[in-house]
Amino acid sequence: MNPKILIIGACGQIGTELTVKLRKLYGTENVIASDIRKLNTDVVNSGPFEVINALDFNQIEHLVEVHHITDIYLMAALLSATAEKNPAFAWDLNMNSLFHVLNLAKSKKIKKIFWPSSIAVFGPTTPKENTPQYTIMEPSTVYGISKQAGERWCEYYHNIYGVDVRSIRYPGLISWSTPPGGGTTDYAVDIFHKAIADKKYECFLSAETKMPMMYMDDAIDATINIMKAPVEEIKIHSSYNLAAMSFTPTEIAAEIKKHIPEFEITYNPDFRQKIADSWPASIDDSDARKDWNWNYKFDLESMTKDMLEHLS
Ligand code: AKB
């Protein structure tokens, strides 16, 4: 039987594409999209849509009851750069929306949860290359602290209350169809828009800042696959490391130059540099590969080609 899905934060960077894919997979009527406002006309007009506040438990519970929801994908969050500007609200949104959903599962009103974590759970004392699944985690951003605490709570709710919650530590995500949402890795999306429009880009990170990244198609596949995996395959109940490619601004600029030879990049690092410096450069995702057969399709070359084709 198809799951009955509620996506909270459906108009955001991941939510938009996730909604489309889940509707194709499970049928439009089985996927209820929701967000705080009607921010994306495609999402709003392509199937059932509800305006809700992720911080309002009663609103979420009401939707769960009315639509007989079995699975919730909680995609609402403040990302790293935005969260630094509003720490109290970021903590409130990122943590309390998670508690609402975990508590619905604890009281058996829903069966399964997807909750996104991030490479931001790591910090400056974490090994930078091939960052292991289990390692030192001392996040230095509000976003990272909220994601790390969230991971601990997911594992706790699984161990103590038997909640089926599944999670991925997303790297930076790159997509042509949705604008970035206030993250530190967002330069890797902006750069394509500026390369096409202006043939030049001023990067807010320094030339050699290497970070883990992933094309949105792969991120959506990972999300759907971890949710589809039989419960016994899910061995990690905090969050899985996930990787595809790692590159620096210099390297992505060189790849773009192969298609747009006039393209030039300059560097003017801002407050986001410190955030990027505290994150891993590459990730060891062998547990995800082993447990639920994770693999990626897009590398830097194929991602760049696909981005430019779609945006042009
Ligand atoms: C961000 O840059 O904040 C996000 C993330 C890595 O979670 N893209």
Which characteristics define this entry?
312 residues; UDP-galactose 4-epimerase, domain 1; 12 strands; globular; binds 2-amino-3-ketobutyric acid
Please sum up the structure shown.
The chain is of the alpha/beta class. It is 43% helix and 16% strand. Helix 6 (142-161) links the parallel strand 5 and strand 6.
Explain this structure to me?
The protein is of the alpha/beta class and 312 residues long. The chain has 2 domains: 194 residues, Rossmann fold (3-Layer(aba) Sandwich), CATH 3.40.50; 108 residues, UDP-galactose 4-epimerase, domain 1, CATH 3.90.25.10. It contains 12 helices and 12 strands. The chain has a 7-stranded parallel beta sheet with strand order 3-2-1-4-5-6-10, with helices on both faces. Helix 7 runs parallel beside helix 9. The N and C termini lie far apart (40 Å). The mean pLDDT is 97. Bound molecules: 2-amino-3-ketobutyric acid. 2-amino-3-ketobutyric acid binds next to strand 7.
Give a topology summary.
Layout: E1 5-8, H1 13-26, E2 31-35, H2 41-45, E3 49-51, H3 57-67, E4 71-74, H4 80-85, H5 87-106, E5 112-118, H6 142-161, E6 164-170, E7 172-174, H7 187-197, E8 200-203, E9 211-215, H8 216-228, E10 240-241, E11 245-247, H9 249-257, E12 264-267, H10 272-277, H11 286-292, H12 300-311
Parallel strand pairs: 1-2, 1-4, 2-3, 4-5, 5-6, 6-10, 7-9, 8-12
Antiparallel strand pairs: 9-11
Helix pairs in contact: 1-8, 5-6, 7-9
The protein binds 2-amino-3-ketobutyric acid.
2-amino-3-ketobutyric acid binds at residues 79-80, 118-120, 143, 170, 172-173, 183-185.
